[in-house]
Amino acid sequence: MKSLKGTETAVTIKAPWGNLTALTWGEPTSPPVLLCPGRMEPCTAFRPLVLSLPAKFFYVAIDLPGNGWSDPLPLGVRFTVLDLVPSVLTVVEHFKWETFVYIGHSLGAAVGKFFNIAYPGRVTRVVELDPLPAYFTSKTISLKEWYHMYYGNYYKKDSYIKHNAGTETAPRYSYEKIKELVQKVQGLTEEALKHQLERMIEPAGDGLYRFTYDQRMKNVTLLPFPSDLLKKIYTESKTPTFAILANDMVQLGAYKDVPFLTDETAWPNENFKFKIVPGGHDVHLNDPGCMAEDISKFLLEDVKSKL
């Protein structure tokens, strides 16, 4: 069998606001698969999963603006999930893809949802990896509370300066402290940490390091759709979709306000399926083996349907 090992290539793609960076695996002539990460997550976090998937595809994992090595969106204003959709279009147009498969983790899944709505027919299949932000609803939050959560403090002087300062002002830490901070939030294995940190930090002098992500990526604005409206919008899609949910998040009730997500009969086009796997929000990075076979089968169905 062909292997993707040894095919990894770093690429830079020009965007109107700067550069988008990405990693690719496989042959560019193979059917394309675009992978979009979550907030503050670099493209390298997809490496373990991609290397477990079929080699007959061309995989492109991107760094969203302000993540990894990609340039941030223009500083100043707070941006929403919709402002990240043009990044996907920029990559698609760069590679001149007519259609492609989309894999998104967390915030990346939400970006893919809106791309698929804005550009119907371009995405042939969708894989959602613990897509929490894609299913954010206003069921338990008022519009007033939503506004103050995202915008209330952002434009106050200290907060504004913090969110728009360059990396030069970022705190410096030892490498071990960096690992401890990320481990505390994400609960990654030692191997997973290496992939996560590869494009997440940079040397800051005196043997210390600093995080390089855009501070605004900590809390990208999500739209306050009521659950019923979200259901209507999402279930209208005819794109075959496979959602993989982390059991830890399910047990915490993260999806309790969107019961249609775990009810395949709620999707009238019969194009949706889901699977719950053991692990936390970053299980795709910590344990790609628990989902690689299922994702592979789902991807290969796209190839078979075109034969």
Please write out the topology.
Layout: E1 9-15, E2 18-25, E3 32-36, H1 47-50, E4 58-62, H2 85-95, E5 100-105, H3 107-118, E6 123-129, H4 143-152, H5 157-164, H6 175-186, H7 190-197, E7 201-203, E8 209-211, H8 227-235, E9 241-246, H9 247-251, E10 272-277, H10 283-286, H11 292-305
Parallel strand pairs: 3-4, 3-5, 5-6, 6-9, 9-10
Antiparallel strand pairs: 1-2, 2-4, 7-8
Keywords: Hydrolase
Protein name: AB hydrolase-1 domain-containing protein
Pfam families: Abhydrolase_1 (PF00561)
List the defining traits of the structure above:
307 residues, alpha/beta, eight-stranded mixed sheet, two-stranded antiparallel sheet, 32% helix, globular
Provide a concise account of the structure shown.
Belongs to the AB hydrolase superfamily. By secondary structure, the protein is an alpha/beta fold. The chain is built from 11 helices and 10 strands.
Task: Describe the structure in your own words.
This protein has 307 residues and is of the alpha/beta class. It contains eleven helices and ten strands. An eight-stranded mixed beta sheet has the order 1-2-4-3-5-6-9-10, sandwiched between helices. The chain has a two-stranded antiparallel sheet with strand order 7-8.
Q: How many E strands?
A: 10
Reading the helices and strands in chain order gives: EEEHEHEHEHHHHEEHEHEHH
- The coarse overall form would be globular
| Helical percentage | 25-40%
Average per-residue pLDDT, rounded, comes to 94
Distance between the termini: 20 Å
> How do the strands of the widest beta sheet line up side by side?
1-2-4-3-5-6-9-10
Low-confidence segments: none
